[in-house]
Amino acid sequence: MRWSSMLLSPFRFRKVRSRFMVAMILLSVSPLFLLGYISFNIAKDTLTLNNEQTNIDHLQTSSEVADLIFRNIVSLNRSIVLNDEIRNDLRDSKVNSSMQQIEMNATTIDRLQKLINSNSYDTRYVDSLCVIDLYYQTYCMGRSDDAGIYETPTKKHDIEETDWYKEAVDAKGRVVFFSNNVLGDKSDVFSTVKLFRDSEDPHGRPIGLLIVNLSKSMFSRVFIGVHNNGTFMAVDSAQGALKVVYKDAKSIALPVMEGSLSDTVNKLRGQGYLVSEYRNQTTGWTLMHLIQKKELLKQSNRIGTATALIATAIALVALLLSVIISGTITKPLIQIKKMMVDWNKGIREFDGKFSKDEVGTIGETFKRISSENEELTERLIHSELKEREAELRSLQAQIKPHFLYNTLDSIYWMARLKKHEEAAQMALSLSESFKLSLNKGKETIPVFKELQHIQHYMTIQNIRYNNRFTYRANIEESIMNTEILKLIVQPLVENAIYHGLEPKLGDGKIEVSGRKDGDYFVFVVEDDGVGIEDMSVTQQGYGLTNVRERIVLYYGASSSFRITSGAGVGTKVEVRFKPYNEEA
Fold first, then answer.
1. What are the two backbone dihedrals, phi and then psi, of residue 258, each rounded to the nearest 5 degrees?
2. Could you read off the pLDDT of 257-281 as tens digits, one per residue?
3. Which H or E element spans position 566?
4. With contact defined as beta carbons under 8 Å apart, do 531 and 565 qualify?
């Protein structure tokens, strides 16, 4: 107490006005400058985080664009390798004379060109195609018929000793992407290598190589549309040492790229770079964005300067106002008492005005606390709504399919090449079903798209079960374009197939109907399957329980989910809800 008295003694003015003025100087000027400093740092951190997230989003989009091009190249590789004429030529290859070599090259180029044209492949970024036979004779389209830097008397030995050849052999027919031109004679291309294997040989002996050289200019399309700050790159770190696949023409001055990817990224960040990275799934390469932090934070520095000037101006105004209002301490306490009584009665809006003195501060503080209490109540309600939304998303995420586009694409094309139309149709329906279930991340879907999802699902099941099931949809036209919560009708059809029609002997029927009943939508899924003897099992299954909970969470307690069934007579499931979220 003695020390506090000694510290406060210089400020114990006889007049309250003087005390108030000194208090305003201490309590307003310092916090305002502190606020300016904090605002500057928050703005800087926010700008950095937003820029990093934006760059990662750009890199993810660029990676998806690159995957489209890479998948096209992979499909081109597979079509060439699966071509019977080219495989027969390689299997029967022999050492040719110069004239035979020319004729063989013309024949190979003609077959490659017909294959590309017949399948409409996008070859804009294909620089050249080369087929190498058992005797390492080279037949190329788009370049001279040679093996580049390996066109020597010891060509066979030189190629077989290269890392890229060994990796292609170890891949056992898989398309391998290399960050450089494996033939070594051009620096503006990179290569894919695929091994030809003899399908008639039980061990699948190698009978040749397919080398596709791609122009690095494809990355100009991959990175198109991104902002001009910094530089974008593609690097390969698969072998430990970092290799630059591509960097754009407007690259900033870069440090030496050496060591592993993580070492290089840490070094770049230590040198003041903001680094964003995203791994491409097809090639395993890393797409990167680099920008100097000092370049990025130029705007933030201007914000800091402006904030300091504003804080200074506010401090000066606060000092001036403290001199003017410090002597007015006459606000009646009765008005504050009346506000407290009204607040107890539930009134939250107060129109009373207070002067800027001690009593007025109490009154204004009470008004502010009342307002903040109301805001906190609203925030609490909003937080509860967010928790319900999170629970809804969690439940819905459990039924989203997790298939691979690349696998479906490969299945489809292989089935087409082998003329397995049913397998191709099944892959296509499964792919479309996958797209509809994901729905670009949206929670709702038009009714007609939900029906498309069901149609694709029935196509798959009828292929599996030799057209045992008859499906009919009877939906009112007026509701076809209305948005509803996705995956609430299709799971009911799936449940009817697996638990109603599949165990039944012979053919089965399933009907989906939908109509508008007042303010409600009513959907009914009915089958003539084996029915349900014990209705308690409907409370245990995951599918029906999931649909029931999602409908209640999204459409509220007024929605309903009803099941009627009898052993041997089939099952009927009725879903009723208002087409708009009651919690909205």
1. -145, 160
2. 566 778 788 888 888 788 888 888 8
3. strand 560-566
4. yes
CA nearest 242: which of 181, 187, 300, 180?
Answer: 180
Element spanning 178, H or E: strand 176-178
Burial of 520 (0-12, 13-18, 19+ CB in 10 A): middle
End-to-end Cα spacing for the chain: 57
> Residue 301: CA atoms inside 13 Å, Cβ hemisphere, count?
6
Q: Which two tokens stand for residue 308?
A: 């300091």
Burial of 153 (0-12, 13-18, 19+ CB in 10 A): exposed
Question: For residues 121 and 189, what is the distance between their CA atoms, to the nearest angstrom?
Answer: 19
Report whether 322 contacts 25 (CB < 8 A). yes
Of 4-13, 306-315, 417-426, 555-564, least confident by mean pLDDT is 4-13
- CA separation for the pair 535, 250 (Å, rounded): 69
Q: How far apart are CA 276 and CA 61, in angstroms?
A: 13
Residue 478 C-beta-side C-alpha neighbours within 13 Å = 8
Residue 450 CA to residue 533 CA, distance in Å, equals: 30
Is residue 222 within 8 Å of 116, Cβ to Cβ? no
Q: How many CB atoms lie within 10 A of CB 378?
A: 9
Measuring CA to CA, how many Å separate 205 from each of 28, 133, 155, 162, 180? 83, 13, 20, 19, 27
Predicted TM-score (pTM) above 0.85: no
Distances (CA, A) of 251 to 52, 126, 289: 18, 25, 10
Between CA 176 and CA 110 the distance in angstroms is 25
In degrees, rounded to 5, the angle at the alpha carbon of residue 221 between the alpha carbons of residues 112 and 291 is: 140
- Give the contacts of 150 (CB within 8 A, at least 6 positions apart): 158, 159, 162, 183, 184
Express each pLDDT in 289-345 by its tens digit: 888 777 777 766 666 677 667 767 766 776 677 666 655 554 455 666 666 777 676
Backbone angles phi, psi at 174, to 5 degrees: -75, 145
Beta carbons of 501 and 529 less than 8 angstroms apart: yes
Q: Which residues contact 342 (CB under 8 A, 6 or more apart)?
A: 350
pLDDT in tens, 506-532: 888 999 999 999 889 999 999 988 888
**Tens digits of per-residue pLDDT, 363-409?**
777 777 777 777 777 767 765 665 566 556 545 544 444 445 556 66
The second-level CATH assignment, the architecture, of 405-577 is 2-Layer Sandwich (3.30)
Measured CA distances, 151 to 111, 136, 180 (Å): 24, 10, 18
Q: Count H helices and E strands in the chain, helices first.
A: 18, 16
Dihedral sign from CA coordinates of 13, 16, 17, 19:
positive
Phi, psi of 24 (to 5 degrees): -65, -40
Distance CA 256, CA 270 (A): 13
Amino acid of residue 292: Q
Classify residue 80 by its DSSP letter: H
Q: What tokens were used for 233?
A: 């790159």
Give the class (CATH, top level) of 82-219.
alpha beta
